[in-house]
Each structure stands twice: as structure tokens, then as C-alpha cells.
Amino acid sequence: MKLRQTTTVLALTLFSFVQPASALIEIWSGHKELNTNVDGCVGRAERLIQSQFDNLVEVGRGDFHRTGYFQDGSYRIVCFANGSGSTGVIFVAHEDLDVATQFGEILLNEL
Predict the structure, then answer these.
(1) For the chain, what is the domain count?
(2) 63 band by pLDDT with thresholds 50, 70 and 90
């Protein structure tokens, strides 16, 4: 019984000093109205990924989105129909919100 209590106290003491990994992911998002249909929006995203940035890796593609990685973050560009045009929505995830924001704004401006 005494050994069990000692083990419990020791374990609780150790857990109070050991902190779990706390790398939180920050997510930035933005959108842009485009004067083109969804296919045109996806085409813009495709050209942006292929020509503007050497450090972008595309890993996912669908009829209305492109997804991939940059350095140690990730991005997704999604295109939605919006009346006669479309809306491009960009999500950027990174541990540093400033990095996510800067990269997201660059993507948004270039889209």
C-alpha cells in the first residue's frame, strides 16, 4: 500500500513538471471575388502554384480545389461559384500566425 502511494505521488510530481508538446497550428483565411467561373479560378490557382512559387508542393487536386505544402506549413485554395463569377478562398496553416498571414496574403494577391 505504501509503495503504491509513493508511486502515485512520484508520478503526479513528474507530470506536474513535464509539459506536453504544445505546437499549435495557426490558420489564416481570406477570400477574393474573381471575374471568372470556377474552372477559371482553379486554373488561376494551378498557374499560381506552378509558376510563382518554387517552394510549393501540390498534393491534392479536385474539381474545385488545390491543396499542398510550403516549407513547414500547408495551404488550400478552394473555388466556389458566385453568380456569374467565382470566389477563391485560401486557407494557410502554420505554427507561426505571421508566416501564415504573409503567405496567405501573397497567395490572395496573386490569385
Answers:
(1) 1
(2) confident
